[in-house]
Amino acid sequence: MSDDPGKTTLRTLARERRRAFLTSLDPLAHRLAFKAIPSPLARRLTGAQTVALYMGLDDEAPAQRLAPQLAAMGKTLALPRVIDRLGSMDFLTWTPEDQLFPGLYGTHHPEPSGPAVTPDVIIAPLLGFDRAMNRLGQGGGYYDRTFARYPDALRIGLAWSVQEHDALPADPWDLPLDIILTEIELIEGPEA
């Protein structure tokens, strides 16, 4: 996917803003963030069987912290596996006790012992979001392609509140998020 210079600049600024925010965040507030699933989100997840999380890298919001509550809700958990540098990834079942193996771009994934699974819910990392439910990712197109491949999956962005922007540019292939969860707020799109 081609990337315009505006998005590249936004990504740099978003990383710096996120890093500064986390440096100033109270350690207890950091440890408690994303450990609970708000009731409105839990209701939206009722019919879902497989929820795809991710292992937070660097300063990303830590999706893995949602795993115990999702497992207690009876959900099958999955993590992404980056297959190649062309934007391909799939999802492998995972439990928090599973050993993870190194993947591309510093990612980690479960051992690919079984077939890939189809997620009903995809929880995605991001660098920025806006109230129009646009998501600014890392620029590789992995989640854009994944959202297109699983159009019926509920798309949830996980972010720190400081990652909100007034408006983000959206390309034709960008699919909006359905829900955004931050450490302080649950934002639901107009279709919710």
From TrEMBL:
SUPFAM superfamilies registered for this protein in UniProt: NagB/RpiA/CoA transferase-like (SSF100950)
UniProt catalytic activity: (6S)-5-formyl-5,6,7,8-tetrahydrofolate + ATP = (6R)-5,10-methenyltetrahydrofolate + ADP + phosphate
Pfam families from the UniProt entry: 5-FTHF_cyc-lig
EC number: 6.3.3.2
Signal sequence residues: none
Keyword Magnesium annotated: yes
InterPro entries per record: FTHF_cligase, FTHF_cligase-like_sf, NagB/RpiA_transferase-like
Cofactor: Mg(2+)
Entry keyword annotation includes Nucleotide-binding: yes
Enzyme class: ligase
Keyword terms, alphabetized: ATP-binding, Ligase, Magnesium, Metal-binding, Nucleotide-binding
Regions annotated as coiled coil: none
Molecular function per GO: 5-formyltetrahydrofolate cyclo-ligase activity
Cited PANTHER family: 5-FORMYLTETRAHYDROFOLATE CYCLO-LIGASE, ATPASE INHIBITOR/5-FORMYLTETRAHYDROFOLATE CYCLO-LIGASE
Family classification: Belongs to the 5-formyltetrahydrofolate cyclo-ligase family.
Name of the featured protein: 5-formyltetrahydrofolate cyclo-ligase
Organism of origin: Sphingobium tyrosinilyticum
